[in-house]
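Below is how a single chain appears once it has passed through the pipeline. First comes the sequence as given, then the structure the pipeline wrote out for it. We keep one example in the README because the format questions we get most often are answered faster by looking than by reading.
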Amino acid sequence: MSNKIKQILDKYKNCSRDQLIPLLQEVQDNDGYISRGAVVQIGEHLDLPASKIYGVATFYNQFRFEPKGKHHILICRGTACHVKSSLEILKSMEEELGIKAGNTTRDGLFSIEVVACLGACGLAPLINVSDEFYGSVTTESVKEIIRTYRRKEENYE
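Resulting structure:
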């Protein structure tokens, strides 16, 4: 059992299944995601099958089962962004990185997450990469944004 997970579970001694969501939130806050091992440990602690834990965790889009990439990409799908073709931006990003939303590239550099709104509708369509905002994004600018981050990584090696 991971020491971090054990410490979190120790905070929830004698708890019941009604504490599952706060427990999952704390594990994810600590590790950045919910691993298979964490699901098993939580299940043993709460006397719940892993399938029940996955059922709850997959119902809420706040939970992730893979670590975020070094450069986590948020793609806004709010109304203004939707009207300005954010679905095409998402498809372009997925194609450029070779992953689907919710996944992380094999090298761990990039991950994609679709969000309901980034709160800057005047800049639609909008994405956020590693806490940096990019407005009026096009399918062509997606490629350049990714190239920029890849070049940064090459220069750091």
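Residues 71-156 form a domain with the Glutaredoxin fold (CATH 3.40.30.10).

See the next section for the split statistics.
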